[in-house]
Design a protein that fits this description.
880 residues; eight-stranded mixed β-sheet; alpha+beta
């Protein structure tokens, strides 16, 4: 089948011919259909010189029932062949447009626009879901004042919610009722929200810095009423932090959150009515892990922070997505760092970059944080736009300093409040507030790829000069073969042979500022340090000051030295990661050459040093002793051998377990203390280190260790310890595994979010039998192909979280994943497109695997009803 979807280009942007000042919506919700009436006050855009007064509205999956202009029925419109465009010509400069449509939320499995989840109506309009509700100018630079009236059966849908403030309500005949909402702030259609259902409400309040009382409301199903306290607490922390850190006060009378079971994303920042995936709201110690508590706090913060960085100031067009998402991710990262350990948070964020964003930069879907083009915008809700976008904002912060950065954000919010703007507007505000030129820095917005810094050094004992040479480059990416130099803030330190930190500003190099940061702007940079008594050890890219790869020839003893002496906690962690990479690479060479694997003994000593460092945060220790996962390891290889990577990594982990068995057992026993659950830094750290020790110990496969894991599972009073024990046993072949897995399901089968954890553990077991297990799980009573959380846990688990099984040489898993992409293409294209991304690196494998992945991709591409979402990902993957 020929499929030639339209490509949208940034350079083709033009302002809309018309703007919509007010939108009045009336929803008549029925179980078999919904009738939507939209009443729009439309006015010619003064910024548009187009003389032809033609409006073209977009829609999707709509039935047009009636159209009126200035109160009179109008039939001289042109409806596109596919029904997705509504064109009206020869219009006056100002008019009223009324459109009545019929939609079917009850059968909407794409989960875009208005759909039903667990019996409730809810919406997801970002990016282009509103066009599934009514014909509209569905683009972010059309900002309107919304008034929304919802009518429904009162018994089935007692709660009716929309954006803004509730202004009226009433009763109707036949057991129905209505509620009217008004949002006084202009917003684009992607921020529209509606919820109707039988929900319970948990409430709290927040007093703003101007002494205004805000009502906080979370709506959930009755069975989840006792799982909202952490979300409410997180919301209040977020509101207080945003006032203190950015001077941003909340602007409506109430802030509402609704938890939804079926949701393509994590959450959505709709003005005043945030709709969340239930996994990102619901938590108590029995059903949620420490990681869940952290994530909920972070995501609650993220969506709340959007009230200013996304809602009050929004995107002109979807190419500017990182304007709101990159900035807001940076804000939520800083919030989480202030609430917990900054070093641990930085490690977590960098792991996301290295595991997901760096491979994307090196793959067929590589794109700048401000893309040049797209076929379907949903494919650009990526780790590049979000996480790399956050790193770009962080670099601006690093270059300007905290005081200037805050002045820049104040100017940005004040200058553009109520506007739809661009990334250029954000950078310009930063320049104007700080008087610092960011012209070269803008390359980060327009160039794709991960820059590389190649560092060499030399020391002259006679002159006491230490010289560091830095060369920057960036590999070619699709459509960008050559790159201009980036503006890179490189934080660094120098450590003398005694392990003491050198004060860099005392050694005669003006390029290094008082924060030990040097701004790399040229292809080559030389730093000269005078009067250095002995050759120092460089500590490079401290706190990961830029999203780059640094290459420096550290020896294994050098890395041991940094692990023991670096004052930067992030770089201590990174040194052990680098040491693990080096050791695993040597093991892979042994495997490829059919040699007996031999392990550098210094690595187990490094693990021992960190395990016994009483000054370090225990969560940081747990992170430090976690060997890089197979995805990270693969990313560093031009030709990926998944079998060798798996075997080498397992050998390292098993050797660490054997060498440090007594120490691991000692630490486990010391930390395995029964106490009431608390989400505190101390308790979280102890659980994290204890369970990391357990994950090593089970590799010994002794009866004693198996019983330790079983006992932990049986006695756990929190989900963190319970799921850690299940995961530990699931990853080894033993009788206890099936017993515990069965017991866990029976205990938690009425908790869907817990069962998603149970699904995910099994789909990630690195055994050939896992594919058969996954197929069986898809037939399980708790699994539904239309639930994105289930799909991510089961199918996504084997596709993205289990490289050795995904890449088994038979190609069976490739066929399985391609079949699931095709099935989901017809149900939920967004989820299907994301799943297709599992094949992104197919050209970096051996000929056998490469050919089988190519066949899987071609099979998807030949699907007769392939959607634009899936087509874009698969076609680019095959082409590039």
């Amino acid at each position: 089948m020929s499929h030639s979807p339209k490509t949208i280009y940034l350079n083709d942007y033009t302002p809309p011919v018309f703007l919509i000042s007010t939108v009045n919506l009336y929803f008549n919700l029925r179980d078999d259909k919904t009738i939507v009436t939209s009443n729009l006050n439309v006015k010619k855009n003064p910024a548009q010189n187009n003389a032809a007064n033609t409006i073209e509205l977009v829609g999707s999956e709509l039935t047009l029932l009636e159209l009126k202009i200035d109160g009179s029925e109008f039939k001289e419109y042109q409806l596109g062949a596919d029904g997705n465009t509504l064109k009206i010509e020869n219009l006056p400069d100002e008019f009223n447009l009324e459109v009545k449509t019929e939609i079917h939320p009850e059968s909407n499995t794409a989960l875009e626009g208005l759909y039903k989840s667990s019996g409730m109506f809810c919406t997801q309009c970002e990016a282009e879901g509103f066009r599934r509700i009514t014909y509209f100018l569905d683009q972010p630079d059309v900002m309107s004042i919304y008034t929304t009236t919802i009518e429904a059966n009162k018994n089935n849908y007692p709660i009716l919610l929309s954006n803004g403030n509730k202004i009226e309500s009433g009763e109707l005949d036949d057991g129905r009722h209505w509620v009217k909402w008004h949002d006084p702030f202009p917003k684009p259609s992607y921020l529209f929200a509606l919820v109707a259902g039988d929900l319970v409400q948990k409430t709290d309040e927040f007093i703003t810095c101007s002494n205004k009382t805000i009502s906080l409301q979370i709506f959930v199903e009755q069975s989840n009423a006792e799982k909202c306290d952490h979300a409410l607490s997180s919301l209040k922390k977020s509101m207080g932090w945003d006032e203190e850190t950015y001077g941003r006060e909340y602007d409506l009378e109430l802030f509402m959150i609704v938890a939804v079971n079926d949701f393509n994303m994590g959450a959505m920042e709709n003005k005043g009515l945030n709709i969340f995936n239930s996994a990102c709201v619901l938590a108590n110690p029995e059903t949620a892990t420490d990681a869940d508590f952290y994530n909920i706090e972070s995501i609650i913060g993220h969506e709340y922070f959007h009230n200013w960085s996304g809602n009050r100031v929004t995107c002109r067009d979807w190419f500017q997505l990182s304007l709101k998402e990159g900035f807001t991710v940076f804000r939520d990262q800083e919030f989480s760092s202030d609430m917990h350990s900054r070093a641990v948070k930085r490690i977590e964020d960098v792991n996301v970059l290295r595991t997901a964003q760096f491979p994307q930069d090196a793959g067929p879907m590589a794109h700048p944080i401000r893309p040049d083009s797209f076929i379907d915008i949903s494919n650009f809700y990526t780790v590049t736009v979000y996480n790399k976008g956050a790193e770009v904002v962080r670099m601006i912060h690093n270059i300007l300093g905290s005081e200037n950065f805050r002045a820049g954000t104040d100017l940005y919010f004040d200058r553009h409040d109520g506007q739809a703007v661009t990334t250029e507007d954000f950078v310009k505000a930063m320049e104007d507030a700080s008087d610092i030129n960011l012209t070269q820095f803008r390359n980060w917005y327009s160039q794709a790829g991960t820059p590389e810094l190649h560092v060499t050094d030399e020391y002259d004992e006679k002159t006491k000069k230490y010289v560091m040479n830095i060369k920057q480059s960036c590999p070619p990416t699709p459509g960008q073969q050559s790159k201009k130099p980036f503006h890179i803030p490189l934080a660094l330190g120098l450590i003398d042979e005694e392990g003491s930190e050198l004060n860099l500003t005392s050694y005669g190099n003006d390029a290094v500022n008082s924060h030990s940061v040097v701004e790399i702007k040229n292809e080559t940079t030389q730093l000269v340090f005078e009067n250095v008594n002995s050759k120092p050890m460089p500590s490079l890219l401290r706190q990961f000051s830029a999203p780059v790869k640094v290459f420096y020839e550290y020896s294994k003893p050098d890395l041991r030295f940094l692990i023991s002496n670096d004052s930067d906690d992030f770089n201590r962690w990174d040194a052990l990661q680098r040491l693990s990479y080096a050791v695993i690479d040597e093991l892979i060479d042994d495997i490829n050459e059919n040699r007996t694997m031999g392990l550098y003994v210094g690595i187990t000593e490094a693990f021992s040093i960190l395990l016994q460092d009483t000054k370090l945060d225990k969560t940081l220790i747990a992170q430090a002793i976690s060997v890089p996962n197979e995805i990270l390891l693969a990313e560093s290889h031009k030709l990926i051998n998944p079998d060798a990577i798996h075997e080498a990594r397992e050998f390292l982990c098993e050797t660490v377990a054997k060498s440090l068995e007594l120490l691991l057992l000692k630490i486990y026993d010391e930390l395995n203390v029964q106490r009431t659950y608390a989400f505190t830094a101390k308790d979280v750290g102890e659980r994290s280190l204890k369970n990391t020790c357990l994950s090593y110990l089970v590799r010994l496969k002794t009866d004693e260790v198996k019983q330790i894991a079983v006992k932990q599972y049986e006695q756990a009073n929190n989900m963190t310890d319970s799921i850690a024990a299940v995961a530990a046993l699931a990853n080894i072949e033993c009788q206890e595994r099936e017993v515990v897995l069965s017991s866990f399901y029976e205990k938690w089968k009425h908790e869907p979010l817990v069962i998603d954890k149970w699904f995910a553990i099994q789909s990630r077991v690195p055994a050939i039998s896992t594919l058969d297990r996954v197929k069986a799980l898809m037939q399980h009573e708790a699994f539904s192909i239309t639930n994105p959380n289930n799909v991510r846990a089961v199918i996504g688990g084997i596709g993205f979280g289990n490289p050795s099984v995904f890449h088994q040489s038979s190609g069976e898993t490739y066929k399985f994943i391609s079949d699931q992409v095709i099935t989901l293409n017809d149900l939920n294209p967004q989820i299907a497109a994301r799943l297709a991304g599992a094949f992104a690196m197919w050209k970096r494998y051996d000929e056998n695997r490469k050919e089988k992945m190519k066949q899987a991709l071609e099979k998807i591409l030949s699907h007769s009803t392939i959607t634009n979402d899936v087509y874009e990902v698969v076609s680019k993957t095959l082409e590039n």
